[in-house]
Amino acid sequence: MGGDDGPELTGFTGISMPTDTSERWVIEGKALEDNLKGLGYDVIHHNAKDVVEDQISQIQSMVDEGVEFLIIAAIDNKSLGQVLADAKDKGVIVISYDRLILETPDVDYYASFNNYQVGVLQANHIIDRLGMRENPGPFNVEIFSGDLGDNNSQYFFMGGLDTFESFIYDGKIVIPSGQTEQSPTSTAGWSGDVAMERMNTLLADFYDDLELHAVLSPYDGISRGVVQALVDADYEPGTDDFPVVTGQDAEAASIKAIKDGTGQTETVFKDTRLLASTVTDMVEALVGGGEPEVNDLGTYDNGFKFVPSLLLDPVDVTAENYVEVIVESEYLTEEQIDAGEALSERPRRTGVTAPSRSERGRVPSGPGRAAFA
Ligand code: BGC
Predict the structure, then answer these.
(1) What atom of ligand 1 comes closest to residue 248's alpha carbon?
(2) Cβ of 164 below 6 Å from ligand 1
(3) Is 58 exposed, middle or buried (0-12, 13-18, 19+ CB in 10 A)?
(4) Which of 73, 76, 176, 338 is deepest in the core (most CB within 10 A)?
């Protein structure tokens, strides 16, 4: 397709986003749609709002409408085999967006961030902030991980745990709950409320006579749930006694807490504008009869094959660099941060263009597969 033998591609694309409770997906769905329409392509765009069956039927309807490309961020990475088999029969090119779709041969490309590195950055924030290299500890830490149906969760989790490993071995990090496997630490639907409940339970069960020093949290919405539970248990934000809490996605409410010192002290910024423009470039390259740019062929095994991937760099954000990384890049204004405004509710900014291909971060390769065995 797009080459000498297949029919001419017109760029007709179906976009399938997973949820509207985590704000990034709303923005990226819209950005992808705008980018592709800007190239003159027809676009259908659905958000499945956390309902797996709806995502399947929305994808099926887009296939039936005759899309040539599917850009999919899956709710449940193992649920799409059948609908993608049908898409493949009809010649649709499938791009797995941010989250790898598993157990199907019918995924052509994957675009995401170096997900393992996200966990490394989060764990290193805790290690640095508590001065674990200099201080004997022990430090009491609890671990939260993401939804089990999301392939990214294991990468965030392993990046964090691998980074903690030598400190756990040395006895500097203690995990009083003993919950160090992915499943018991997971957070269904990436939900802040679910995380708050689990933190309440952990505090009640294990911290009667113990101080908690840090919580490794994989996502800002989860972090805010954790912080709420800590505040309810009388930990005082802004004091040295408040546990170090990490996060991901640079959501305005979390950047506000980082800036004001009212809870979470770190987030990992993934410039989703770049991801959306990268995937737009992939579609454009294929429509033009070329091959999309990828930079990793050997990390993301979906159970059938290593999916050719393009991975961007995540960036660690704290009170020290949020102005440079978040404000100066025009991801959020200070006003939006101060308002703790959800990105999905803010008016669309005009005149902001995604950085060019040459300005984008690139990572040479992801972690070895052994890390995930
Ligand atoms: C994404 C994260 C996001 C999480 C919850 C993951 O798949 O990579 O950026 O925080 O989903 O929406």
Answers:
(1) 10
(2) no
(3) buried
(4) 73
Number of the ligand 1 atom closest to the C-alpha atom of 115:
8
The one-letter amino acid code at 244 reads V
The token duo for 247 is 């996060």
* Cα–Cα distance measured from residue 242 to residue 227, given in angstroms and rounded to the nearest whole number: 9
Chain segment 152-209, per-residue pLDDT in tens: 999 999 999 999 999 999 999 999 999 999 999 999 999 999 999 999 999 999 999 9
255-301 confidence digits (pLDDT tens): 999 999 999 999 999 999 999 999 999 999 999 999 999 999 999 99
Choose the residue to mutate in 121, 148, 150 for probing ligand 1, maximizing ligand atoms within 8 Å of C-beta: 150
Structure tokens, 208: 């009667």
User: Considering only CA atoms, which residue is closest to atom 12 of ligand 1?
Assistant: 22
Q: Closest Cα to atom 10, ligand 1: which residue?
A: 219
Beta strand extents in the chain (DSSP E only): 13-17, 43-47, 69-72, 93-97, 109-113, 139-143, 173-174, 214-216, 244-245, 267-269, 309-312, 315-317
The residues, any chain, with a CB within 8 Å of residue 159's CB and separated by 6 or more, are 115, 116, 117, 118, 119, 120, 121, 122, 123, 367
Residue 22 and residue 4: Cα distance in Å, rounded? 42
Among 363, 364, 163, 151, which residue's Cα sits nearest to residue 270?
A: 363
**Centroid of ligand 1 to alpha carbon of 206 (angstroms):** 29
pLDDT one-digit tens code per residue, 8-43: 899 999 999 999 988 899 999 999 999 999 999 999
Q: How far is CA 25 from CA 18, 50, 210, 266, in A?
A: 7, 11, 38, 21
d(CA 69, CA 48): 18
Q: What is the number of the ligand 1 atom nearest to the C-alpha of 98?
A: 8
What is the Cα–Cα distance from 189 to 207, expressed in whole angstroms?
Answer: 26
The rounded Å distance from CA 343 to ligand 1 centre is 15
For residue 219, give the ligand 1 atom closest to its CA.
10
